[in-house]
């Protein structure tokens, strides 16, 4: 069976009194990620991993931040679109492993809900979705709480 790996990365600025959506879940925090969409850095990294695995360009190619159609959109909808693109090219998603890097708040309590949202949007079993988190040990822009970063890898298999 043919399999391929994909990698995704994303970063967004954190702004005071802004909604904070990660993995489709609303995070209770005084600041949130800023972007053209809902700025869900985790789902964006996952989308880019999926698109990368299938050699389908990247998230900005399919959903340009110059297009009002994507303004404020839930990134879970973008994930659903990426899954359609993947299937149209004859591939199926096998698993996701993702890493969030942010200083605060603690993300661990939100992870089961994030996995459920991503499972709904991707069709993956929650058992095939891994989400982890780390701080940046107070260093750099993440450590200063100016931004949030996500990395993701995925595996796809030929249908
Ligand atoms: N935003 C975060 C960061 C970390 N975690 C959890 O805490 C553990 C320890 O993180 P360190 O960066 O201090 O090593 C980490 O393994 C995560 O389980 C978190 O939930 N949210
Ligand atoms: C998701 C998109 C949608 O317009 O906008 P942003 O929320 O700014 O996010 P980014 O990670 O910069 O990816 C670009 C766009 O595809």
TrEMBL record:
Positions of the 2-C-methyl-D-erythritol 2,4-cyclodiphosphate synthase domain:
3-156
Query: What cofactors are annotated for this protein?
Result: a divalent metal cation
Q: Which UniProt keywords apply?
A: Isoprene biosynthesis, Lyase, Metal-binding
The superkingdom listed in its UniProt entry is Bacteria
Read off the Pfam families from this record.
YgbB
Q: What are the residue positions of the site described as Transition state stabilizer? A: 36, 135
Role played: Involved in the biosynthesis of isopentenyl diphosphate (IPP) and dimethylallyl diphosphate (DMAPP), two major building blocks of isoprenoid compounds. Catalyzes the conversion of 4-diphosphocytidyl-2-C-methyl-D-erythritol 2-phosphate (CDP-ME2P) to 2-C-methyl-D-erythritol 2,4-cyclodiphosphate (ME-CPP) with a corresponding release of cytidine 5-monophosphate (CMP).
HAMAP family (UniProt xref): IspF (MF_00107)
Q: Which family does it belong to?
A: Belongs to the IspF family.
> What protein name does the entry list?
2-C-methyl-D-erythritol 2,4-cyclodiphosphate synthase
* Provenance organism: Sphingobacterium sp. (strain 21)
Name of the coding gene: ispF
């Amino acid at each position: 069976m043919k399999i391929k790996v994909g990698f995704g990365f994303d970063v967004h600025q954190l702004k005071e009194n802004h909604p904070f959506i990660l993995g489709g879940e609303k995070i209770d925090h005084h600041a949130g990620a800023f972007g053209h969409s809902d700025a869900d850095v985790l789902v964006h990294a996952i989308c880019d991993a999926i698109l990368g695995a299938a050699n389908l360009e990247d998230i900005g190619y399919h959903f340009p931040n110059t297009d009002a159609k994507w303004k404020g959109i839930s990134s879970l909808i973008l994930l659903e679109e990426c899954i359609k693109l993947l299937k149209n090219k004859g591939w199926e998603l096998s698993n996701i492993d993702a890493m969030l890097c942010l200083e605060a708040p603690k993300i661990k309590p939100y992870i089961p809900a994030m996995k459920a949202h991503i499972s709904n949007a991707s069709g993956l079993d929650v058992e095939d979705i891994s989400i982890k988190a780390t701080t940046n040990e107070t260093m750099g822009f993440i450590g200063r709480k100016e931004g949030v970063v996500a990395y993701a890898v995925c595996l796809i298999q030929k249908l």
